[in-house]
Design goal:
Length: 203
């Protein structure tokens, strides 16, 4: 298999295939013949079976994908354990396609994209303001900080990609998209560093 600029947390694994720019958190796993491209983030114990392709896709904790799936620009949530989680069946393809010479109305797609970008901004804030600060600043936990730092990079890639696509979509239709997001205010309830095992993203 080929792995380039990918980051794997403790116990994470890729059984075979290709991975570039992907981040897998603790215990995440991708089956054989995986194709994990830039912007892919798999949270704790999320998993895929064989022949799954992901790009600019985020799987929150415990999410499970079957085989022969292709996802691009997706966020899949829902799950509290290996017994209680969201699952996508085998043979599912999600991609962007617009027929030639066809321009659909600006809304509701613009509104849906804005909401999706807002969810990504909230996820980034969760990582920056809650997950990362709760990891102790010690050499023992340095590898965990690296993994979370790289997860934030991939979330930012997803935000940039969606903003660029939304602007292009709206410009084609002579409409405004939205202004660039401003700075995220600090979390009002920061807590001191402690064990990072309890800071999975709320799904």
């Amino acid at each position: 298999m080929t792995v380039r600029d990918a980051v794997l947390g403790e116990g994470a694994r890729i059984d075979g295939g290709f991975a570039e720019g992907a981040v897998l958190l603790r215990g995440a796993s991708a089956g054989a013949d995986a194709h994990l491209r830039a912007g892919t983030l798999m949270e704790e114990e999320s998993s895929t079976a064989h022949a799954v392709g992901l790009k600019h896709t985020i799987l929150l904790a415990f999410v499970t994908l079957g085989s022969l799936i292709n996802f691009c620009d997706a966020l899949v949530a829902g799950g509290t354990s290996r017994r209680d989680h969201s699952e996508v069946g085998s043979g599912y393809i999600h991609f962007n396609y617009t027929p030639p010479d066809y321009l659909d109305p600006v809304d509701p797609r613009r509104g849906r994209n804005r909401r999706y970008i807002a969810e990504l901004l909230a996820l980034r804030a969760w990582y920056r303001e809650v997950r990362l600060p709760r990891i102790p600043l010690t050499e023992t936990h340095a590898h965990r900080r690296i993994v979370i730092d790289e997860a934030i990079v991939n979330i930012e890639l997803a935000i940039e990609e969606r903003l660029a696509r939304l602007r292009a979509f709206c410009e084609e239709r002579g409409a405004s998209a939205l202004s660039a997001p401003g700075p995220t205010p600090p979390c009002p309830c920061r807590s001191p560093p402690k064990s990072p095992t309890s800071t999975r993203s709320p799904g």
